[in-house]
Amino acid sequence: MTGRTIIIHSLDHARAALAASIALGVPVRLRSPSHAAAYLGTTVFREMISAAETDYPSAEFIAVFDCGENPGHALNALRHGIKVVRIRCADEVRARIADIADQMSASLDDFDGPSLDLLDESDPPERCRAWLAAQD
Predict the structure, then answer these.
(1) Domains along the sequence of the chain with CATH
(2) Are the CB atoms for 70 and 98 separated by under 8 Å?
(3) pLDDT tens track for 83-130
């Protein structure tokens, strides 16, 4: 699935992105901030995404959990049901994690294109609409 990437920092951000996605009929990639696995935790991210999906069940999206450079965080995320993780590590280690992810019907995210980071946005719903509307 392709879609414009929106970096979310809260449940409100996830809801704003999914509402805009539905309103415009475009898919979206919800991504946690860089290294979020180290401070947010897998369970918090998983529950945040689950709550947003419950509120917007018709939204077409993928949720990507950023594990920084820590393979342990990536493996923990996969064990706890995260379906798409982002990891930056040595190619050999990454290949092993990709194999494990594949066995769990999960995947690794490699997308490095443009993204909208909602951290300092004063009106996340409007910024999400504008970002998604500008889709090529």
Answers:
(1) 4-130 (3.20.20.70)
(2) no
(3) 999 999 999 999 999 999 999 999 999 998 999 999 999 999 999 999
